[in-house]
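pasting for ref
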Amino acid sequence: MNWTLSSGVTRLLIKVGVAYGTDPERVQKILTDIVRAHPEVLADPPPSVFFTLFGESSLDFEVRVFVDGIAKRLQTTHDLNVAIARAFAANGIEIPFPQRDLHVRTAEGLRGLVGGATEAYPGTTR
């Protein structure tokens, strides 16, 4: 059912990941304090913060809050994201970037480059 027909209340969903090794309860408290302090975030329905996933590079959280108008969504999302970034920086909590390990099965095409010669790739120079 589309509840926005009878009410302007709308939910915001903010996803944020933190580095492995970070205390999830500490993150939850920081996020909860941030959303409760924002003047546009409604107390009813109450905001919520969930630790949702052990991601590839992060512990993933979802922040769910409600505002009383669609026009307030973008500015409130911006405000909360800025507050989260500042609070994490102040508390030494890292927002990681995706990391990948590369495993090379064969280096046959690189053999000439690794040895210092470039004969394997005509026209290349150092």
